[in-house]
């Protein structure tokens, strides 16, 4: 357990269903909570609904039925400004999506300047501090094509942090990386966990999940089957499907 959680709920997802137009039932009555300062890791086989569920938490995927509250705000209320809410929810994807014509530092500064309209000096100082935080203070003026995959993903994390979010979502952030670059990205995420950042992470890195998670969610075919501590999930799994899954990958 990495964090001293308080009892304040950051995310409350209640009975989430997601149907696609082709009839695919991608999420089946998924209910889960994330407390402020908690690290929740979501695992499961490919196609189990992990990423779909994660993406509903900032409405990149719309739900069909159910409700999602983020920091006390009903995400699907007509009165909710979803763009404003998204400013408070950082997202890091498998692909880095950096602007190739901008330097690493400029990529980090872009959203606070354009979206949040913060003063240039303040944004610049914060962006430089973030680049140092992710171990790239010597790469600030490099363009993405001159950075390794691991470095680009660390810039992407700094870019998400630049908006000063209260919640960070990571969708398989290391799956597109060469194996030797995975560690440098996971180390940055471990640092965020120690600092008390609220995080929901979809990953196939089981060692990382065991080390960093406060809770682990196991999904299969759109349903949430297990919600428990990493010790219970990895050291003493009781659900037969979870046992089967872990036996194949560990």
Structure description:
Helix content is 36%, strand content 24%. The chain has 250 residues and is of the alpha/beta class. The chain has one domain (9-247): Rossmann fold (3-Layer(aba) Sandwich). The strands form two sheets. Strands 6-7-8-3-9-10 form a six-stranded mixed beta sheet, sandwiched between helices. The longest helix is centred in the C-terminal third of the chain and has 16 residues, at 179-194. The protein starts with 8 loop residues before the first strand and ends with a helix.
Secondary-structure blueprint:
Layout: E1 9-19, E2 25-35, E3 39-43, H1 50-56, E4 65-70, E5 73-74, H2 82-86, E6 89-92, H3 104-114, H4 120-133, H5 149-161, E7 167-171, H6 179-194, E8 198-202, H7 206-212, E9 215-220, E10 223-228, H8 230-235, H9 240-249
Parallel strand pairs: 3-8, 3-9, 6-7, 7-8
Antiparallel strand pairs: 1-2, 1-4, 4-5, 9-10
Helix pairs in contact: 3-4, 3-5, 4-5, 5-6
């Amino acid at each position: 357990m990495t964090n001293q959680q308080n009892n304040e709920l950051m995310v409350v997802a209640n009975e989430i269903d997601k149907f696609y137009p082709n009839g695919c039932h991608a999420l089946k009555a998924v209910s889960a909570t994330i407390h402020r300062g908690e690290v929740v890791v979501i695992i499961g086989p490919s196609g189990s609904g992990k990423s779909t569920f994660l993406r509903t938490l900032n409405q990149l995927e719309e739900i069909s039925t159910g409700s999602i509250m983020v920091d006390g705000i009903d995400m699907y209320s007509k009165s909710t400004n979803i763009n404003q809410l998204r400013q408070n929810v950082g997202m890091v994807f498998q692909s880095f999506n950096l602007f190739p014509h901008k330097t690493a530092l400029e990529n980090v500064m872009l959203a606070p300047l354009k979206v949040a309209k913060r003063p240039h000096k303040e944004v610049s100082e914060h962006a430089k501090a973030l680049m140092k935080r992710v171990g790239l203070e010597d790469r600030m003026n490099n363009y993405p094509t001159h950075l390794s995959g691991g470095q680009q993903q660390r810039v992407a994390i700094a870019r998400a942090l630049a908006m000063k979010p209260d919640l960070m979502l990571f969708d398989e952030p290391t799956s597109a990386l060469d194996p030797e670059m995975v560690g440098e990205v996971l180390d940055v995420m471990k640092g965020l966990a120690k600092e008390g950042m609220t995080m929901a992470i979809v990953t196939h890195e089981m060692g990382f999940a065991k080390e960093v998670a406060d809770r682990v969610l196991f999904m299969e075919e759109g349903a949430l089957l297990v919600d428990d501590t990493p010790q219970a999930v990895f050291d003493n799994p009781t659900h037969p499907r979870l046992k089967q899954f872990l036996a194949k990958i560990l």
